[in-house]
Amino acid sequence: MNKNFYSGDASVWIKPESFSGGDKPQNVHSFFRREFELEVDSVTEAELFFTADDYCKIYINGEFVVAGPAPGYPFHYFFAEVDVSRFLRSGVNCIAVHCYYQGLVNRVWNSADGLAGLKLELKIRFASGDNMTVPSDASWRCIDCEAYNSERKFGYDTQFAEDIDMRQIPAGWRNCGFDDHGWNNAVAVGDYPHVLIRQNTALLEWNQVKPLEIRQIAPGDYLVDFGREVVGCTAFCACGESGQVVEVRHAEELDTNGRALYKMRANCEYQEFATLSGAQPDIVEFFDYKAFRYVELLGLPDELSLSDIWVNERHYPFAGDVKISLSDPVAEKIWDICALAVKLGTQDSYLDCMSREKGAYLGDAFVTGLSHLYLTGDSRMLRKVLEDFALSAELRSGLMAVAPGAFEQEIADYSLLWTPLLLEYYKWSGDVDFVKKMLPVADGVLNYFSAWENHAGLLADFTGKPFMVDWPPNLRDGYDDPGLMGGNVPQQGMNSLLNIYYYGTLIATADLLAAAGNTLEAERLTAKANALKLTVKKYFLRPQGFVDTAASEHISLHPNALALMFNMLTLAEAEPVIELIRKKRICCGVYFAFFVLKGLCNYNRHALAYELMTCNDLHSWQTMLNDGATTCMEAWGVEQKWNTSLCHPWASAPVYMLCAEIFGLTPASPGWKEIAFAPRIPETLTHGSLTLNIPQGKLKVSFNRDKGELEFDVVAPAGVEVIRHMI
After folding, report:
1. In this structure, are 133 and 219 located in the same domain?
2. Domain region containing 565
3. What pLDDT, in 10s, does the model give residues 325-367?
4. Residue 122: left if φ>0, alpha if ψ -120 to 50, beta else—which one?
5. How many folded domains does the chain comprise?
6. pLDDT of residue 18
7. pTM of the model
8. One domain, residues 285 and 347
C-alpha cells in the first residue's frame, strides 16, 4: 500500500509545533510557507501534489490555487495534483498554505484523532530535461494563527464559528518577501498512518459570485442579497480603526421584519464577528463554507458597494450545457431549483445539507447521484461515493449510512440501497471492472442482513441497524411499527418495507454478478430473490396493498411504492397498489418521493407521476416554489419540518424523472453503447427539448405536438444506435 504521492516522492508530512504534545486541540488554523527561485522561461511543466489533514487552501505568489483534499479514511486518504505553471514567475516564488484541523467528531472529516498537517511536493520540469522539486519538509516556516479563535459551533458540531481578528493575521504572509523569521520551523512527521490514494474526481471549482442587491438598513448596517442560495465563503472589504468590530450574519431567508434570519431553521446560528486591523483596507475572508442567500453586515465604518463583498462559491465542476425547455413553466422552475441544489450539494461527495451536517448520506446519494449523472454526464463522483461507502465496511458490517466522516451513523434502509445504486452506476458507465472490485462488498451486505433471515427467508426481529422508513417521522404515512429510527423500542417481528428493500438488494446483486460473468451465482441469487418475492406477498400483500408489518393491518404508502420501484408485482397485483397511491398522493417526505414516482413510471403511469410532480398540493415541489425556494428543500415547505434545510439535493427526483421517464432516455446497454428512447410525454406538454451529456457525447431530443400528434427529433452521438420504444 502506497503512503507516497508517486515513486520518488521526496516530501514528508509536516505539522505545527502545537501538535507535538499528547493533546488533541480543536479549531487550529496553521500557516505554512516556503520561498524558492526559478527561471520560468525554461519551465515546461509544473505539477503540485498535495494532501492535508483535515483540509488546506494553497496559494502561490499570493494567488489562490486550490483547496482540498476530499475527505477520506486514513486507510484510504486522498491526495490531488494540479498544474500550477501559470502561477509561477521568474525569480523568487512563494508557496503559502492555510491548513485547518477541526478536531470534532462529525460528518465532515475524519478528525478528532490528533493527525494534522500537510504533505506537498511541487515537481517542476525544464526544457533542458532537468527537474526541480520543492517538497514539504522541516525547512518550511509555520505558525498557528490565533485569528479564528471561537468555541461556538454550528449545526451538529459541524463547524466552528469564525470570529476573525484581522490583527492576528500577518499581513502579506502569502506573498514573496514576507518576513517569517518570527515563525517556527515545521515539525517533520516520521510516519503517519495515511495510505495515500490519488483522488480520481475533479477538484472543486471556485467562482466569485457578486450580490444581486445591497440595501442599507441603518447607518453602517447593510443587507446583502445574492438573489439565490449560494454555498461558499464570504469575503468583504472594510476600512476602519484597529479593534473596530463588524458583525456578520448569514441567512437563507428573511424574518418578518425583512432582516437576515441568521438563527436558521437548519440549526445554525450564523452570527460571527470580524475585528478590523486598522490596515486600509482589510479583506475579511471566511475559511469554511456556509449555505445561505443573505448576508447582513452591522457596524461597517464606511459605505458598502456591490464591489466590496462577494462569495467564493465552491462546488464540483458542473456542465452548464445540459439544458431543458418545456411548455410547462412550472416544470421548468422545478427543474431549476432541483438542478441548482444538485450543483451546490455536490462538493467532494453528494452532501445531504451544506449547513447543518455537511455529510454524505447513502440514501441521499441514491437520489442526488442519479440526478447528477443526468445533469453532468460525469460518473466519477458516483464511483467515488460508492467506494467511500464500500470502505465503511471496514468500520461497520453492512456499511454505514454516512461516509467517510468520523460520525459513525447507521441506517438499514440506506445500506440496502448501496447495491442498487452500484447497478445504476454500471448501467450508466459500463465499468465492469469496478463492479468486479465492488462485488465482495455487495456480498458482504447480503451476508450481514441474511443473519436475520427466519425459516421463511424473511428478515425478522432485525436489530442490526436503525430502520428509518422516511424522514421526518411525521411523513411516514402512519407506518405502524414502533421499532423505527427515532424511537426507543427494539425492532420486533417482520417489517414489509425492510424485506422489500432486501429483495431489491438481492435482485441488484444478481444482475451485477451476471454482468461480471458469474452466471451460476447470479442464477442462485435470482432464485432466492424470486422466492423472497413470493413470501413477501404471502405475508404482507392484501387486496388493497401491502401492510406495514406482519402484526399490523395498516397500509401505508411506503412499502407499496417500493414494491413498484423494484418491479415486484404483476400488472394485476399492481392495479390496487397504483390506485392506493392515486388516492394517497405524495404523503411522504421529499426523499422517498423519488421511489413513489419511479414506481409509478415502472408500471407506465407516467401521466400520474408527472401530475404528482408538478401539482400544487401541500406536499409538492410547487409548495417549495411558493415558499420562495431557489433550490429544492429538505421538506415540502419551510414549515413542514422543525429544522428544514432550504438546500437539500435529496429532493431532486424531478431531474431524473424528466430525463429518464418523461423524455424516456436511458442506456439500452451499459455505458450508453445503445440508447433506449421511450418517451412518455403528458398531454399537457405541447413542446420541449432536452440536451444531455452521455459518455459518447451530446444527446439532444426535442418534440412538438402538432394537431394532437407528437413529432420527435433525436440527435445522438455518431455511432450510437437509438432504440425507439414509442407508445
Report:
1. no
2. 323-706
3. 999 999 999 999 999 999 999 999 999 999 999 999 999 999 9
4. beta
5. 3
6. 84
7. 0.97
8. no
